[in-house]
Amino acid sequence: MERKFCVGCERTLPATSDYFHRHAGRRDGWHDECRECRRRSHKAMIKKQQQSDERTTIRRVAKLIREGHEVPEPEVIIRVAYKHFGGSQGVARAMHEVYDDPKSPLMAKMGVLTAFTRLLPAVDEARRREREADERRVNAMSREELDEHLARLEQMFVEAMVAEANTHEGGS
Ligand SMILES: [Zn+2]
């Protein structure tokens, strides 16, 4: 049986489609690397590309935050980032990578830290729980308590408006 040397793992394997992919451009009709090696390099290439994409995304978000911009539509970014990085652990790992990189400037690290606090699901979760608790509190109120609560809010609103009006009068 004809045999073929793989330039990847340097094994000499049977020159059959069990071991090598066909390649029309090669003189002998086979790829230089065996199937196993091709699979390995393909995976490595995809991983490298993903890591590069991750870094670009993280840097872009960190740059926005660093420059004082709001992160546009955090929910969208979170969804995309989670999908791309493979969940919150992936996001954390990618950010940590930027943070740990000795070449990252201090501001980039600060950006990552800020992004962490803004993007971590724990923050959103906490906010959601807070909102829900607030709703529950209002729902749990009796009619009288609710009236009182609303009256208090109204009073606060009026006071805020009066304070605002006074500020403007004093300024002119
Ligand atoms: Zn090989």
Give your account of this protein's structure:
There is one protein chain. A hairpin with a 6-residue loop joins strand 1 and strand 2 (12-14). The chain has three domains: 3-40, no CATH class; 47-124; 143-172. It contains six helices and four strands; from the N terminus they run ββββαααααα. The strands form two sheets. It has a two-stranded antiparallel sheet. A two-stranded antiparallel sheet has the order 3-4. Helix content is 70%, strand content 8%. The mean pLDDT is 76. It has 172 residues and is mainly alpha-helical. Helix 1 (35-66) packs across helix 3 (87-100), helix 1 (35-66) packs across helix 4 (106-119) and helix 2 packs across helix 3. The protein binds zinc ion. Zinc ion (ZN) is lined by residues 6, 8-9, 11, 33-34, 36-37.
Short description:
The protein is mainly α and 172 residues long. The protein is built from six helices and four strands; from the N terminus they run ββββαααααα.
Topology of this protein?
Elements: E1 3-5, E2 12-14, E3 20-22, E4 30-34, H1 35-66, H2 74-85, H3 87-100, H4 106-119, H5 121-140, H6 143-171
Antiparallel strand pairs: 1-2, 3-4
Helix pairs in contact: 1-3, 1-4, 2-3, 3-4
The structure holds zinc ion.
Residues 6, 8-9, 11, 33-34, 36-37 line the site of zinc ion.
Specify the biggest β-sheet.
2 strands, antiparallel
Strand ordering within the main sheet: 1-2
Helix content: over 70%
Assembly state: single chain
The average pLDDT is: 76
Radius of gyration, Cα only, in angstroms? 30 Å
Q: Which word captures the global form?
A: elongated
Ions and ligands = zinc ion
User: What is the number of independent domains?
Assistant: 3
What is the ordering of alpha helices and beta strands? EEEEHHHHHH
Strand content: 5-15%
Low-pLDDT stretches are none
Distance between the termini: 98 Å
How many H/I helices? Answer: 6
Report the structural category: mainly alpha
Strands, count: 4
